[in-house]
Design a protein that fits this description.
Mean pLDDT: 90
Low-confidence stretches: none
Structural class: alpha+beta
CATH topology: Aminopeptidase
Helix content: 40-55%
CATH class: Alpha Beta
Strand content: 15-25%
Number of helices: 5
Length: about 120
């Protein structure tokens, strides 16, 4: 039986896995973003951290099958990135993001051509 429940901070690992597995038009985000850990921090982290999550997960037999996430506070969402940027840069310099080199093309494009976050 399918159950819908509010997202919880402990859902991060499974949400990160699902996001990465489906992050490229339903296929793996590895195609354009091989730095899996950084991908998770960028696309799942803000919603389960201080950006304030509003979200639901769908689960069956205790296993999360899918989710929807959002933030009710766009300022806190942006602040998440601003506050973490120094840490991400330091960790990148220390080699803590395997696959980062292959992700730089996407990251640079995102900086050059920013898009609005979904409301």
């Amino acid at each position: 039986m399918l159950r819908i429940r509010p997202v919880q901070p402990g859902d991060y690992p499974v949400l990160a896995d699902i996001a990465y597995a489906t992050g490229f038009f339903g296929g793996s985000a590895e195609v354009y973003f091989p730095a899996r850990a950084l991908f998770s921090e960028l696309w799942v982290g803000p919603y389960l951290g201080p950006a304030g999550a509003c979200g639901l997960v769908a689960e069956a037999e205790g296993k999360v099958l899918g989710y929807i996430l959002g933030s009710m506070d766009p300022w806190r969402y942006r602040l998440y990135y601003l506050q973490r940027l120094p840490r991400w840069l330091a960790w990148a310099a220390l080699g803590r993001y395997p696959g980062l080199g292959g992700s730089l093309r996407y990251l640079l494009r995102a900086v050059r051509y920013p898009s609005r976050a979904a409301p």
